[in-house]
Every structure is written in structure tokens, then in C-alpha cells.
Write a structure and sequence with these properties.
This protein is an alpha+beta fold and 110 residues long. It has 3 helices and 7 strands. It has a single domain, classed as Pdz3 Domain. The strands form 2 sheets. A 4-stranded antiparallel β-sheet has the order 1-6-4-5. It has a 3-stranded antiparallel β-sheet with strand order 3-2-7.
Length: 110
């Protein structure tokens, strides 16, 4: 069924002291998912190829990101060294909703 969201997938990255290379967003009321808004060209995340804008961050290293603020996810990613495992799910249309001018977002660069 094309209306169903894709299955979650686990993506493992080797963090070598640099930022992973994506921007996270979440609405300012702190409900809804943490989304990948943009992937920086040439970054670790871009070179890996396992992410795309509109991916929802479900967990980081096994810790659920449900109901967590975007700054918390950002700190988890920035403080992790070595390998990091993210569970993500693509959410069709989620970024379109974020472009609504009445939809305010909290944003973080990871």
C-alpha cells in the first residue's frame, strides 16, 4: 500500500570527530517527530547515503527520541564518539508541513 509509511531502518555511521552533517527540526510546541531537514553535501551523512530529508529520528544508539526536544537529540549526536546508530523512518510529506509559515520549528545542526 503506497499510503503506508516505510519500515524503520537502522543506519550506522562512523563519527570521526566531525559533525555528521545534517540539520534537525521539530515544531516549537515540542510535539511530533524530530526530522532531518537537510543533509550537508560532502558530509559523513551525505557520503554514507543512508539518510534523506524527511527522515524521522526514532532512536539514537538505542535510546528513543519520542517526546524528546531537538536540542536533546543534537547533544546525543554531538557527544557520541566512534560509531553512532540511528533508527530512522521516512515520513512522506512531513517537511512540506514544516514549510507552512504558521509552523514554527526548533532547529539544530549536527
Amino acid at each position: 500500500n503506497s499510503l503506508r509509511c516505510p519500515q524503520p531502518r537502522k543506519v550506522k555511521l562512523d563519527k570521526t570527530g566531525h559533525k555528521l552533517g545534517f540539520h534537525l527540526i521539530k515544531n516549537s510546541q515540542n510535539n511530533g517527530p524530530i526530522l532531518i531537514k537537510r543533509i550537508i553535501p560532502g558530509s559523513t551523512a551525505h557520503k554514507h547515503g543512508g539518510f534523506k530529508p524527511g527522515d524521522c529520528i526514532l532512536s539514537i544508539n538505542g535510546e528513543s527520541m519520542e517526546d524528546k526536544p531537538v536540542w536533546y537529540a543534537s547533544i546525543q549526536l554531538q557527544c557520541t564518539s566512534g560509531k553512532v546508530t540511528l533508527e530512522v523512518r521516512y515520513m512522506p510529506g512531513a517537511l512540506v508541513e514544516c514549510k507552512n509559515e504558521n509552523y514554527q520549528v526548533a532547529s539544530s545542526d549536527c
